[in-house]
Each structure stands twice: as C-alpha cells, then as structure tokens.
Write a structure and sequence with these properties.
Blueprint (H helix, E strand, L loop, with lengths): L2 E3 L5 E6 L4 E7 L5 E8 L7 E4 L5 E6 L4 E7 L5 E3 L5 E3 L6 E6 L5 E6 L4 E7 L5 E7 L5 E6 L5 E6 L5 E5 L7
Antiparallel strand pairs: 1-2, 2-3, 3-4, 5-6, 6-7, 7-8, 7-9, 10-11, 11-12, 12-13, 14-15, 15-16
C-alpha cells in the first residue's frame, strides 16, 4: 500500500496491507530493489509510511485501528519496533492517514480522515511517540504540508475544497 524511501536513498519500505507486514529493500545504484526482510506489524492494515529526516525512524499509520507504529532503522536498513506495544493510539475512530514531520524533526503531524482533524505527536529522543494534541475541524483531512519556516501547517479536506491553516507558534490557532 504505502511506501517510504530512506533519506540516504539506500532503502525502501513497502507496506503490504493484506499480510499486515512491512517489506524492507535496499536500493542499488541502478535503482534495483534487493529484498532485506519482512516485518509483521503488531496490528492489522498498515496504511502509509514516512521516514524521519534523520533516517533513524520509520512511522506507519494504521487507519482502521487508529494507531501510529514506530520503528527504529538500523544502519543496514533493518527495522526494530520501538517499545511495547510499539504504537501510539490516536483518538477513537479518527482514521490516521497522511503524516508529515516538522522541519525541527521533533513533531509528527497526522491527518485524521474520519472528520477528526489533525493530531500532533511529539517525537521523543528514542523515536517513540507521544500524542500531544488533536485539533478537530469536523471534516475529513486528506493531505498536510508544513511551511518551510516551521510556523504553519496546512491541511486539505476530503469533503470540501477547504484548506485549513494551523498556527503552530500560537497553540494551534487557525
């Protein structure tokens, strides 16, 4: 389903929804994928993935279960789940999907597709996540973009042509 490429360009992670797994590949100089391993996810239906800009962590949204999974990425591209149970829960029936990471690398923003809005998760020093806040807009959020200055995040709606601006410097005021 979702794929993410490591910032080095050396690894690709592919989510396989029907097998509840993540497949890791190395990428050769000519772009060929070389299989590394398959990792079973602790919950069903992994959806989308994003690699932290440092290349140390992989985050996976699980829309059907309202989870965000956290993995550490080893120097050889292999994965290890962070902590037990290895995920953080978003609000009930929120449907986490698209994720973006703040330019500081300290926050993960998650679009909530079931009318729940947007969640902010703090990225801890070990890569684990802590849910900090959720902003409801009453619409299904589809996509996210963080402004390069790091002060604003923009969210687009599935159900309308609305674009929401969140002022990150002023406690989520829109």
């Amino acid at each position: 389903y979702g794929i993410a490429i490591h910032p080095s360009g050396n690894y690709l992670y592919a989510l396989v929804r029907n097998t509840n797994s993540i497949r890791a590949y190395s990428i050769s100089e000519n772009g060929k994928l070389n299989f590394i391993d398959t990792y079973t996810t602790p919950v069903n239906s992994p959806n989308l993935a994003i690699v932290h800009p440092s290349g140390k962590y992989l985050y996976v949204s699980v829309t059907a279960e309202n989870y965000i999974l956290a993995y550490s990425i080893n120097s050889n591209g292999t994965l290890e789940i962070i902590g037990d149970p290895g995920y953080v829960t978003t609000p009930a029936n929120s449907g986490p999907e698209k994720m973006v990471i703040h330019s500081s690398g300290k926050y993960l923003y998650v679009a909530l597709s079931n009318g729940a809005g947007l969640s902010i998760l703090e990225i801890n020093t070990n890569g684990s996540l802590t849910l900090k806040n959720t902003k409801s807009v009453g619409e299904n959020i589809f996509d996210l973009a963080v402004h390069p200055n790091g002060n604003y995040i923009y969210a687009s709606s599935y159900s309308s042509s609305n674009i929401y601006k969140y002022d990150l410097a002023v406690s989520w005021k829109t």
